[in-house]
Specification:
The protein is an alpha+beta fold. The protein is about 55% helix and about 15% strand.
Length: about 270
């Protein structure tokens, strides 16, 4: 229990000491070193395992981008990593990604035939917000500084996150049998088929902003976009830092750091 309490306190301290700090925290921070992490775990024998793993991170990564801790941190970090990695690449990469986004927008707003049936007018603004950014990347206009500015506009940033959540929801609902075992759904009750259970789950746990992302949602989003992610775990497990890769064979990969209850973005 004591270790869990240290983890909890450390996580709270990292959000800049309370609600005021959280409100002021950038959605996506500038690249920085690992000094702030070292500061969180500097004292106490019980934190030696954290200190050792931070040294390992310093050897393997050039820095870290801190991400706002509002329940959207995984998706915000993942979306930013995708878009930043497209900057400076051949325009076909951005074009392909834009095609995926457009495809999901079509399915999300399609009535019948496997579509989710969301009103186009209700979803279009969210799609257009991320589409405009990808178009600027495709045209070679977008810079990293511009992307940072876009993500640090909270309203715009949350719009991008919401569309990403809709993509995850769409993938869940397109593949209910695949995810049902992970979520404990069964078809024993004819009045409550798996498809309905999946839709209810998405409305409750996937689509709302500030809902924490669980492993199943990471699986759905990475598979939907074909963009992998490796998560490094800064935790109390003994030995070297553990990691887990979702969609490890994907051509493109993001790398995130997970601490108790929070994700940040690691930089090579």
């Amino acid at each position: 229990a004591g270790g869990a309490e240290v983890d909890r306190v450390s996580s709270l301290e990292d959000e800049d000491n309370g609600v005021a700090g959280w409100m002021e925290q950038p959605c996506i921070g500038a690249v920085q070193g690992f000094d702030f992490l070292e500061g969180l775990y500097r004292e106490g024998n019980e934190n030696e395992v954290f200190r050792s793993k931070i040294q390992e991170l310093k050897r393997r990564y050039s820095g870290i981008r801190r991400v706002k801790g509002d329940g959207n941190c995984f998706i915000r970090a993942y979306a930013y990593a995708i878009l930043e990695s497209l900057i400076g690449k051949a325009s076909v990469e951005a074009s392909d990604f834009r095609g995926k986004l457009m495809g999901y927008f079509f399915v999300i707003t399609q009535e019948g035939g496997g579509g989710l049936g969301y009103q186009k007018e209700a979803i279009e603004d969210f799609f257009q917000d991320i589409d405009r950014i990808v178009v600027l990347i495709e045209e070679g206009v977008m810079t990293v500084a511009m992307l940072e500015e876009s993500f640090n506009n909270l309203s715009l940033s949350n719009s991008l996150i919401f569309f990403m959540r809709l993509i995850a929801s769409c993938y869940f609902q397109q593949n209910p049998d695949k995810f049902a075992p992970f979520l404990g759904f069964s078809d024993e009750d004819p009045a409550n088929p798996i498809a309905k259970q999946m839709k209810d789950y998405c409305l409750r746990e996937v689509e709302p902003l500030q809902r924490e992302v669980e492993q199943e949602q990471v699986m759905a989003l990475t598979e939907a976009l074909g963009w992998g992610v490796t998560v490094e775990y800064l935790d109390r497990s003994p030995g070297e830092i553990n990691h887990h890769s979702f969609l490890p064979d994907a051509k493109m990969q993001a790398t995130l750091l997970y601490r108790p209850g929070h994700y940040d973005l690691l930089c090579r």
